Amino acid sequence: MKRLFTLLICMASIHLTASAQDEQITRPQTTAPVAGEAIAQGNWMIGASIANIGHNFKSETFTLDINPRAGYFISDNAVLGAQVQLGLSIYDGGEEFRYGLTPFARYYFPEGAAPTHRWFGEAVFGFAGSSEEDSEGDSVFSLVYGLGAGYAHFVASNVALEGTLNLIRSNANIDVSNDSSTGLSLSLGLQIYLPGSGRSF
After folding, report:
1. Bridge partners of 61?
2. Mean pLDDT throughout 83-110?
3. Residues near 3 by Cβ (< 8 Å), separated by ≥ 6?
């Protein structure tokens, strides 16, 4: 009987110790209910997206595209800004650098909104070009425009992770034999929302 009583006490103390440790574990924050405050008139948005990163083993080509951006909320849900397009392809025998400046307009839809996330639509229109090392097509520069649709998930009071599906048309001759190209791309990004003067989240 003594042994049974001692065993029960040991099991109870182990259970209480484990419960206390579980309560002390702090899980990382994965969501924040502040989407409406972050996309209000007068706020700023800065961030970047990675549009394309990869390595083609057959052609031995490495590709990376990064688009830093900044914008200002002209009204609740609506932001105007500009993004810089930077891209690099390295392949056997050379490399190609892509560049551009594309102003954008973005609108966060109130429909289907939740405190922690928003759907948005976006339009871009600007100029882009490419220069290929040791090529007659160096410094080609022309028009780029397109549309995008995306999802912003707020992980902190002023930080959102984004995924965007883009349809872009570019006349920047990366391959000199082609006049233009149109394509779909998926980009992942991180945006930081800064309050305007006199505001806080």
Report:
1. 56
2. 90
3. none
3-class secondary-structure state, position 124: strand
How far is residue 151's CA from residue 148's CA, in Å, rounded to a whole number? 10
CB-facing half-sphere around the CA of 128: CA atoms within 13 A: 28
User: What are the phi and psi torsion angles at 170 (to 5°)?
Assistant: -130, 135
| Position 31, amino acid | T
Q: What distance in Å separates the CA atoms of residue 108 and residue 186, rounded to the nearest whole number?
A: 18
Both tokens of 177, joined, read 């034999």
Is residue 59 helix, strand or coil?
coil
Q: The pTM is what? A: 0.74
pLDDT tens column, 131-182: 765 555 555 678 889 999 999 999 988 999 999 999 988 765 444 334 456 7
